[in-house]
Amino acid sequence: MSTASKTVLTVAIATLLGYVASFFVPVPAGWNDSSFGFHWTLSSSVLYTLLHVGAAILFLSGIGAYKAALRSAYMKIAVGIVLVGGGLAQVVFLNIFGLIQTPWVQYGGVTLPFVVAGLAIYFGTRSMAAVIGVHSFLRNVGFVVPLLVVCVIVVSLLPHKSSALPELVFDISNAISAWDVVLYSVSLALVLRIRSHSGAHYANAIKWLAIGLVGSVVITLCVLVGTLLSGEAPAGYLLDSIVIIGGLLYLKAGYSFARTKEL
Amino acid sequence: MVVFKNLMSRQQSEIMTNALDLAKTAAGFVSNQSAIEPLLYEMKQISNQPSFGTILTRSDEDALFRIYLQIEQYLMTSDPIRTFNKEELRNKASIGLRTRLEEYERHAMAPSK
Fold this sequence. Notes:
heterodimer, A: mainly alpha, B: mainly alpha
């Protein structure tokens, strides 16, 4: 069995153990919903966090065969993926353990992982494109930054259902979703450009990285549109399920990349 | 669709028995195909010849060996993402094909009289 296969099996076992263990966590006294609701929410967040972390481990396990510049690019992507999973999970943990009133949330620290995740994934794919020699205007920060600014402003000005949150806080949360949608989309476009340039040996790994990014774009877009339409951030079984699928896609992308070191 | 296929096995390491497959496989390892575009074009020209069949003529095989050796050199010295070594690349060839390749290489490298 290859190292990549052993790693993916270890990740799968650790993820399942974490998922099962979360069902044994006692329901906090302040929880208002059913016990099933608590355990579903907790176990889902544990599941998608571990899937994202596992994906990052797989990416990192494959970089040993490559030169420093590509290693650095994939490290940035791996950091971004961990932050995507961790960022989503922290929101759930903060909710279920009644930590919404903490300074971390009130001063906006809760949004940091999402802001940094988008940047890390963009700069990772940008470095990857540069190393391979792919020329694209999407590598130009002078193009991407104004695009980000315009999209963030447009989203903040969009009409939306009234929210219980102060308007500024609501706009900032939507701006961060728009930030990520733009950065994931630009990263996706860069990855597709890389795919058209690279050799057959890397085609599968790059295809799955692109699919993982499609997942991120779709999830973030769902959150953004759902928030604008309902006035509050969407949560529940459907969102949990698509985030789990997003984690699985990155896990597959990490596995496919780890296998490229085998000739 | 099997998402995690070949989980229990090493990646199927196919052994090439003809020069075209060997050159194509080596080309697949190049991270940016545009760096070897003239060689890919040449390879396509050879395989598109009407006379090109399952059994390669000596001149076609020699041409493909020459292309392979240039790709191999590129992979060992210039590919921007990875440094390959000769052995791991040549391990893709069957014993017979490798013998013929190395024979061609010896002749090509020999100083002309």
